[in-house]
């Protein structure tokens, strides 16, 4: 099938792109566009060209698989042909108009979009910048401050926002094609127009802010520099500089890493989508437990459009859960993630399990304790219809043991949500030894419904993410014993690109849960296993983290400060373990953290707990703050 078709009717050339799944600008499509543009140039009767796309979206960008190995014809040359056409080209947009797709739309002479269209230049999320004039054309259409936000942030904007800023000329009110045909075209070529409102931009301040925010990612800074070129150089020179930057970045390590994550995220959970069993209907979902996790899961379901029956142990706890969910929805509404608060009307709370009987899926999110969860599952087994899927939200517990408390363990699986559950994208789907196809298909459908990235994990202590985190956290404590300090380890991790170091994270989430888990395991720990007592000593001293005002750091001043008492405890524990303290460089710290992550990752793969190295990277990047532009620990292992 040809990716481009051309029909002429009453002096109008209708150019239709059809290149599933997302009309990406691969080589055959670019060649098709070039040939069509040349043909149209030779047709004296054509007065206008309407460019549109078949399928669910306008062009969603360059073909990411071709990045780094460009093939002729090059997109900038094809777009020059279009922009230089003597007859106007009108872009009729729908779906997601992204990257090279938006550059194509901007090379046309006017743009009309269907309601609901989203437009953006997401190149920075792939470690590159627009490479076909995007940074030069965009600020000639929209004010420079909007161009900076779009190109350096990579987030798409709505059709309404695009219209308000000047990126499109109209939102269609009815038939997109017919209205596109009637669009007038502007007189002056876009590249002859001046850049809009660049005078007020403080480039230095913009760069400082961006440098802090991007934590080592180079593309956003290059994108800003390209926009500055646009403001300061003639359009053609700025285009040439943009192309140089694009070509250099498209073969960079960061871009390779980001492309790896892009495809790894899309492959994650594919096995769940391929299951033939029918998933449970998600219109009504039961949630047990309305604490932080349960309320977050309920909020995620409500935002996605489900009705939720939330069960707590008594009426008072149910009321508190209702308030918690309402607060989460209100916060989402305030952040523009939820259109209105009517979602709350789909929530019912109570304490009677019988209310769950018509829910095809129930997610239990009670206290992380096997006995408590076992009781919940026994009660669920009594009231739920035989085909209902029963999920436990757990971060550590043995899903197989829990499944065996029910008559049909094939309908039980683990769903490890991350807090806040209505925000975080990762969902570890824990496939137990007995979990059946319907339960797994339901997990896949749920992930799509909640717009989360599902990664399948086998049963083990901590599944994929917590198991790797525990391994390197343990080794970080060994490094403390050997000579490092918490603030050094955190600095090394932040320098590498983590938003927070492991000690700042522990202080934020509290040290007590891990302490309880260590105490529970103490009896079965082999006597000859290396064990650092530092964290236990901190807990015994009441240093339970931020909530106690002290943990690995002191928070008396409101910000995290290194604390001599912690350094003292560490020094004492070094002496007790018979270690001679030595200096660690940041690079040595990161080498050690990465090698422990990779070793644990390899063990997890060998045990079949993770299906692929890519899945491990997705877990670490989407759930554990591993810098996306580094691709994940397994990617770095090569
Ligand atoms: C660029 O444009 C550079 C230019 O400035 C310069 C050029 C010179 N290429 O996400 P989905 C595949 S850089 C190749 O599951 P959704 C994807 O892998 C590009 N393949 O669907 C998947 O395949 P599979 C800038 C692509 O509905 C299938 O399509 N553009 C591309 O949830 C469905 O994808 C972007 O960064 C692509 N560009 O979301 C946009 N896009 O079925 C990247 C998708 O085998 N794409 N695929 O797993 C997206 O953000 C989302 O895919 C989109 C659809 C929102 C479009």
UniProtKB/TrEMBL annotation:
GO terms for molecular function: (3S)-3-hydroxyacyl-CoA dehydrogenase (NAD+) activity; enoyl-CoA hydratase activity; isomerase activity; NAD+ binding. Gene3D superfamilies: 1.10.1040.50, 2-enoyl-CoA Hydratase, Chain A, domain 1, NAD(P)-binding Rossmann-like Domain. Residues 285-457 form the 3-hydroxyacyl-CoA dehydrogenase NAD binding domain. Keywords: Fatty acid metabolism, Isomerase, Lipid degradation, Lipid metabolism, Lyase, Multifunctional enzyme, NAD, Oxidoreductase, Peroxisome. It is found in: Peroxisome. Residues 462-555 form the 3-hydroxyacyl-CoA dehydrogenase C-terminal domain. It comes from the Bacteria. Coiled coil: none annotated. Pathway: Lipid metabolism; fatty acid beta-oxidation. GO terms for biological process: fatty acid beta-oxidation. It catalyses: a (3S)-3-hydroxyacyl-CoA + NAD(+) = a 3-oxoacyl-CoA + NADH + H(+). PANTHER family: 3-HYDROXYACYL-COA DEHYDROGENASE-RELATED (PTHR23309:SF51), 3-HYDROXYACYL-COA DEHYROGENASE (PTHR23309). Belongs to the enoyl-CoA hydratase/isomerase family. This is 3-hydroxyacyl-CoA dehydrogenase.
């Amino acid at each position: 099938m040809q990716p481009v078709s051309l029909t002429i009717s009453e002096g109008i050339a209708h150019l239709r792109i059809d290149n599933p799944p997302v009309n990406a600008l691969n080589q055959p499509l670019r060649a098709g566009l070039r040939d069509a543009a040349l043909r149209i140039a030779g047709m004296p009767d054509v007065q206008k060209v309407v460019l549109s796309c078949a399928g669910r979206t306008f062009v969603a960008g360059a073909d990411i698989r071709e990045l780094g190995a460009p093939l002729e014809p090059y997109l900038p040359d094809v777009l020059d042909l279009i922009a230089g056409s003597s007859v106007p080209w009108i872009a009729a947009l729908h779906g997601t108009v992204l990257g090279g797709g938006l550059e194509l739309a901007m090379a046309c002479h006017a743009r009309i979009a269907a309601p609901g269209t989203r437009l953006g230049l997401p190149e920075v999320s792939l470690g590159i910048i627009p490479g076909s004039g995007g940074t030069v054309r965009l600020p000639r259409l929209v004010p420079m401050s909007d161009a900076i936000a779009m190109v350096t942030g990579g987030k798409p904007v709505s059709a309404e926002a695009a219209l308000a800023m000047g990126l499109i000329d109209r939102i269609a009110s009815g038939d997109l094609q017919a209205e596109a045909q009637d669009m007038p075209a502007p007189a002056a070529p876009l590249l002859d127009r001046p850049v809009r409102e660049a005078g007020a931009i403080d480039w230095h301040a913009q760069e400082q802010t961006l440098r802090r925010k991007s934590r080592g990612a180079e593309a956003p800074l290059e994108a800003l520099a390209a926009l500055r070129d646009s403001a300061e150089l003639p359009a053609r020179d700025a285009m040439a500089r943009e192309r140089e930057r694009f070509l250099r970045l498209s073969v960079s390590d960061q871009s390779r890493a980001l492309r790896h994550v892009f495809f790894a995220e899309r492959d994650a959970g594919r096995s769940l989508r391929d299951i033939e069993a029918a998933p449970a209907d998600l219109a009504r979902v039961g949630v047990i437990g309305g604490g932080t996790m349960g309320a977050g899961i309920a909020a995620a379901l409500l935002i996605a459009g489900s009705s939720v029956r939330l069960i707590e142990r008594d009426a008072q706890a149910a009321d508190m859960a209702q308030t918690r969910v309402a607060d989460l929805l209100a916060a989402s509404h305030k952040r523009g993630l939820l259109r209105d608060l009517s979602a709350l009307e789909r929530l019912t709370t109570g304490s009677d399990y019988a209310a769950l009987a018509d829910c095809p899926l129930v997610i239990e999110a009670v206290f992380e304790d096997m006995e408590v969860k076992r009781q919940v599952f026994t009660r669920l087994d009594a009231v739920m219809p035989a085909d209902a899927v029963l999920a436990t939200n757990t971060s550590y517990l043995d899903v197989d043991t829990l499944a065996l408390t029910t008559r049909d363990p094939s309908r039980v699986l683990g769903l490890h949500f991350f807090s806040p559950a209505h925000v975080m994208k990762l969902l570890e789907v824990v496939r137990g030894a007995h979990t059946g196809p319907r339960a797994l298909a339901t997990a896949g459908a749920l992930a799509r419904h909640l717009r989360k990235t599902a990664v399948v994990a086998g049963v083990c202590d901590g599944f994929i993410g917590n198991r790797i985190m525990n391994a390197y956290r343990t080794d970080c404590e060994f490094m403390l014993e050997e000579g490092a300090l918490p603030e050094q380890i955190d600095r090394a991790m932040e320098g590498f690109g983590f938003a927070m170091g492991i000690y700042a994270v522990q202080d934020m989430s509290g040290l007590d849960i891990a302490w309880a888990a260590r105490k529970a395991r103490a009896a079965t720990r082999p006597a000859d296993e290396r064990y650092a007592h530092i964290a236990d000593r901190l807990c015994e001293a009441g240093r339970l983290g931020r909530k106690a005002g002290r943990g690995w750091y002191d928070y008396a001043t409101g910000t995290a400060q290194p604390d001599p008492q912690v350094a003292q405890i560490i020094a004492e524990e070094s002496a007790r373990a018979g270690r001679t303290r030595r200096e660690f460089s940041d690079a040595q710290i990161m080498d050690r953290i990465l090698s422990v992550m990779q070793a644990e990752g390899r063990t997890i793969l060998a045990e079949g707990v993770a299906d692929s190295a890519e899945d491990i990277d997705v877990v670490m990047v989407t759930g554990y703050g591993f810098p996306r532009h580094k691709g994940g620990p397994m990617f770095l292992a090569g």
